[in-house]
Each structure stands twice: as C-alpha cells, then as structure tokens.
Amino acid sequence: MGVRAWDTHSVRARPNRRGWGLVPRLRFTAEDLLRVTFADEPAPMVELTLAVAALQRSDPLFAPWRRRTVRTLPRSAGPLRELVPATGKGPLFLDPPARGFDEGLDGVLSTPARFVRAELRRVHARGTRPLPWTRLLADRDGEAWRILEAAVRAARATMLEPAWDRVRAGFDAERAWRLQQLARQGIRTTLAGLAPGARWHGTALELGGADTEGAAEGLEFALDGQGITLLPSVFWTGRPLVGTYPQGTFLVYPAVTPLPLLDDPGRPHAPTALVALLGRTRAAVLECLVQPRTSTDLVRELGLAKSSVSEHTKALRAARLTTAQRDGKAVWHSCTPLGLELLGGFPA
C-alpha cells in the first residue's frame, strides 16, 4: 500500500491526490457517521498488494502460508516484490480499490506517466535503490510495463486465485458480523472495534498513539462530511489504512479471521463441525447465510427444492441462528450473531 503524502505544516493532515497511509486519528462529523458504509466485496488489487507485503512481513501467523507461497511463486512475480516492501508502502498506483481484478489492472496500466514518476521518486527517496526496469516505468517504456503486468498476473495466479473463495468467505463473515454489531451496539462502538486499543475522543477516533507505527505520517485525517467505506482484509494484520480515491475514502482494516486461519487444514469446516447438530443440509444453509440471501438464492446455490429451503430456514430461525425479513415478494435471510459464532468462532 502506498503512503499518503501529508502537509506537515498544519494540524490537520491534507491528503494527496490518492493513496494509502497509516493515520493515528480520524475526525468525523455527524454527517460522516451517517455516511459510513461497508464495501460489498473485497478489492482484488488491494488484497494482492497486501498479500505481497504479507509475504515479506514477520507475522508468525503467516509463517506457514509464506513458506508455501515462496515455494510456488514464479520468478515472473518477483518484480512486484521489488516494488512492494514488507510495510506495504509501495507506489500508490499499484492498488486501486476497484471491485474487479481486470478493472483494477486496467487502472494500474493506464496511470499517467507524471504520477508514476512522482510515486517512484517518492518510493526511492526512502533509500531503496531504483532498478533499471522501474526507472523505465516512469518513461512509459513498453517492455517495463509488460514486466509489471506479467508480475501482477503471476502473483494473482499464485496468491489470490487459489485462496479467493476463502478470501471472499472471510470478507463476507467479517462484514456480516460487523453489520450485526452495528445493529446491536451502534456505529461508534463498531468503528472503535476495528483496531486494538482504538478509542473515541469527542468526534475523533484514535487508531494509534504516538508510539505506534506510522504515527508520524499524519496527525489527523478529517473526513469533512464525505463519509468513509470500510474494507476488511484477510491479508493485512497491521493498523488500519486510510486511502482517498475517486470512488471515495476507504478504511482498510484487518478482518477478525485472517487468511491463515481460514486456510488452516486443522480448522474444522463449519458445516462439518455442525453437521451432527444441524444436519448436513441445514449446516450448508447456515453457512450460505453469512451473507444475506433470498429464498430463491438458496434454491439456486444449494440445488434444493423451494419447500426444503422453507423448512430449513424456518428451523434455523426457531433456533435463533438466522433472521428473515420480507422485501416485497422476496424474503431475505441472514445469520444472527449466534449463527456467526457457531460458524466462525467470532467474539460475542
């Protein structure tokens, strides 16, 4: 993730054109709190960049994943590791929060030369030695950009594609749990729960004190009524990152369940763990409802008869594991906090 440029001459940090940064304090207005939203799905380019950073971080939780990934990562992906360090503070143009990989990669490849040049100059100003091919990126050299595109595609094929179902499952579970928390405890408690030790001081959310990593990058980021979109990541385990893009301002934070726990073969799969209690089909229905779905969705995704879906959802509601809400002719089902705890072991 790229570091945001800050105006250190003012108390309030002024964001540059776009990018990501560690921010000790977020300043909300009442309008901002009304405009807090959750992303609908993970952003592939953001997750890919964070995966490259995780590959180089010393987090022991990711150690088995790092060993497996290093063995399978092709040499063609190497240039991406040369651009993204363990801190994740690489060039800002590498990780737009686009909803699809192709859309995100198109955004990377179409970055204006002036912005590429400025970002590479910023990255290399920190003491990293520029490589010949990265210097050519700033000149829009065709071969250099083909190297970068090949590196992104190779890294995606090795790190993202095999794990994408788990990435999406972790994202959906995290989002569902936070929305339940929002309904039960309100927006201030939900936002304060995104980082260990986070706390409110008036309308400012403290995400890290002066002794935390990145505290010098900016004193405060004021949202000024534009709101913010929450984007959980199963690869990131550091402090929340704030980034402003044409699509809006995003807060990337670590999902409660990181990828290694989703990926751990010793961790019981939810339907298998619950099958003795609920039955195989009912457990599968419960797992699907980590993300809200209609009865028609369940019929299509699980290959069940409509009457069977009705029977299973009724039983799950009676056990207070799911809820149902009618919207016109459709009935939307979703997990309750109890259902989420049974599936993923999330805290109450």
From TrEMBL:
It holds the Pfam family HTH_5. The keyword Transcription regulation applies. InterPro entries: ArsR-like_HTH (IPR011991), HTH_ArsR_DNA-bd_dom (IPR001845), Metal_resp_trans_reg (IPR051011), WH-like_DNA-bd_sf (IPR036388), WH_DNA-bd_sf (IPR036390). Residues 272-343 form the HTH arsR-type domain. The keyword Ligase does not apply. Keywords: DNA-binding, Transcription, Transcription regulation. GO terms for molecular function: DNA binding; DNA-binding transcription factor activity. This is Transcriptional regulator.
